[in-house]
Amino acid sequence: MRLSMDLELQDIPGQLLLALQPFRDNKANIISVVHHRDRKTPRGMIPVRFVVEMDRSKIETVNAKLKESGISVVRAGEDRLLEAVSVVLVGHVLHSDLGDTVNRIDSTGFAEVMDVSLTMTGVDEPSSAYLKIRATGKAEIQKALAILREVGAEKKLLVIEPIEAEAV
Amino acid sequence: MRDIKVSLVGYGIVGHGVVDVFNRKKKLLRDMDLNLKLISVTDHTGTVVAEDGVDAEKILGERTLANVANTSMLGKEAIEAIDSDLVVEVTPTNIVHGQPGLGHMEAALSSGKHVVTSNKGPLVVSYSRLKKLAEDNGVMMKFEATVGGTMPLISLVERTLVGNTILGIRGIFNGTCNYILTRMTEEGIPYTHALSEAQDLGIAEADPSYDVEGVDTAGKVVILANSLFNMNIKYSDVDVTGITGVTPEALALAKKRGYAIKLIGDVPALTVRPTLVPLGSPIAVSGTLNSAAIYTDLSGTITVTGLGAGSIETASAILTDIVSIYRTKRIDAIF
Predict the structure, then answer these.
(1) C-beta of residue B114 within 8 angstroms of C-beta of residue B86
(2) Which residues on A lie below 8 Å from B259 (Cβ)?
(3) Fewest beta carbons less than 10 Å away: which of B20, B34, B157, B314?
(4) CATH number for the domain that contains residue A63
(5) What is the pLDDT along chain A (168 residues), one digit of tens a residue?
(6) Residue B220 designated active-site
(7) What residue numbers bound the domain in which B54 lies?
(8) Considering B120, B142, B220, B262, which one is annotated as catalytic?
(9) pTM exceeds 0.95, yes or no
(10) In whole angstroms, what is the distance from residue A2 CA to residue A53 CA?
(11) B102 — alpha (psi -120 to 50), left (phi > 0) or beta?
């Protein structure tokens, strides 16, 4: 599981190493460490954000070890849905069972529809919807889009996806 | 001074532009040591031939050549009979069989004449065959005007960005669709309303299906894929969705979240579909403009934008192609 933690370190040498030790001991894979020297707290502490991949059951142990070493843990949370994508659907969005469309994404376990805005003009007119989908990673976003494309073909909806920022 | 005898085949909107631009740029071309002589103009009614150059003033006022033609030769017959160095092929596009342009281009290349064209049809139908025909006959085939009109794309990739690996090209390749989507967003008007407005302004054809169903954009995707990505694909390999299903409400929802909806052609994905483009993106241009983002390994992403259609603009791309043929040849001759 991937989680992010905000720690506060004292501004003296060796603190980062001290903070890393409990992660190492509990076999956590460190994804990123961002040092916010520019955002010193009033008490002179330096905020550091860790993103790590580790076993859920080890969180408490790591937390306790960090506190033991005098490092304050400001926040420790699961950062499950890291990526987001916007999609617009056009067609009989509501009458083709919008609940089902959303559920097809939500039921994957790796992606969720977080935001829906719907515009309807008339009973027989096509409606338009904006969806924001969040997922655990870039690959999962692509999988969610593939599902939506499939649903779109099945329910005769025009699925308007965002342009890719980079060449694939 | 180098004499270049040019035959123009096709005398519609683009053909008129070519005659006009050749006439206007005579002096500039002479300064480059090129004496571009338009020795014949052919359309479906006949041909005007003049060894010393067709008088632009005399034919520019004519909608067709019916009243000014001095021989009844048509198409291939004229191309084979007239002793020119280069043929400019600007007959109407047919993406299904490529004719009559395909026959014209085959005749020109087989008889050892360079070809410069704005006609997508022949290139979509049989690019690799035409390219081989040009190589076998030691002549060049240039077609910058087929994609993005005056916006430099093919020459930019082939010359300026040479040495880069091109990872992909995405862009807006149809000004009619872009105009319609822009107006729908600006005014909140439905598709049919924006379409009739475009038709009134002469931006859309009476039968707009070729543009709005994405056929034209897909043709350009085929040309880019074959010419710049060596893909050897057909029209049917492109997954095409047009803009007819896009609603003003969808455009408004997208805009509220910071996106425009544009008809985007994508190579090498081979797709044409309405796509969300961030409003700040350099390819999110409005009105009848075209744009293209070129993704490269060394230079990052390069974006170009420009007018995708128009008589003079298209003729400008044709003129650039002609000059580039003779400039390249001259450099080759020195070394």
Answers:
(1) yes
(2) 86, 88, 162
(3) B20
(4) 3.30.70.260
(5) 778 788 888 888 888 888 999 989 988 888 888 888 888 888 888 988 888 888 878 888 888 888 888 888 887 776 667 788 999 999 999 889 999 999 999 999 889 998 899 998 887 889 999 999 998 888 889 999 999 999 999 999 999 999 986 655
(6) yes
(7) 2-149+311-334
(8) B220
(9) no
(10) 4
(11) alpha
